[in-house]
Amino acid sequence: MLHLCIVGLGNPGDKYSKTRHNAGYDFLDIIAEQFHVDFKYLKKIDADYVEIDFKDQKIALIKPREFINKSGKTLQLVRKYKVKNTKDILVVHDDMDLEPGDVKLKLSGGHAGHNGLRDILKVIGNDFVRLRFGIGHPPNKDQTDSWVIKKPNPQEKKEMANAFEKAINNIDKIMLKDWMIIMNDLHSNEH
Question: Which amino acid positions bind tRNA, per UniProt (predicted)?
């Protein structure tokens, strides 16, 4: 069994590449690049998958191939085949309640209107860790669906890159599941 599964949420396909909703995919791509590993499709969990050896621990990076609103399917399979405990799952996702540039770690909780999380909660419960990247709110609540599948503007993109960097600076602690230390670091570095 794995020490940790890091699951990045996003929508598959070029059409959605680098959109706000794909913050989870984007962050996993950064980790994979840093560790010089490449994703391969793993049919058993219907996801792009790669394992990293880190300090005698096996860590998996997982990008579900389903659309974000159906993320629960992959998480159910991850739970079945890859980890004993949902506490060993870190879900990386976009969050409209945080501004671009903000990144927070949360140990459990509800879905806060995020349809990907809503689907996951239905399937595996809420006892997993989340890494939340801020994407801000659309100017109008009616625009939520189109907002999340658009690319961020240049300023937001810069802010999001800063948030990815803050999180990557904690990658060793993430791999070791030092959640409280990460929370202290990320939450005390408000910009």
Answer: 16, 67, 69, 115
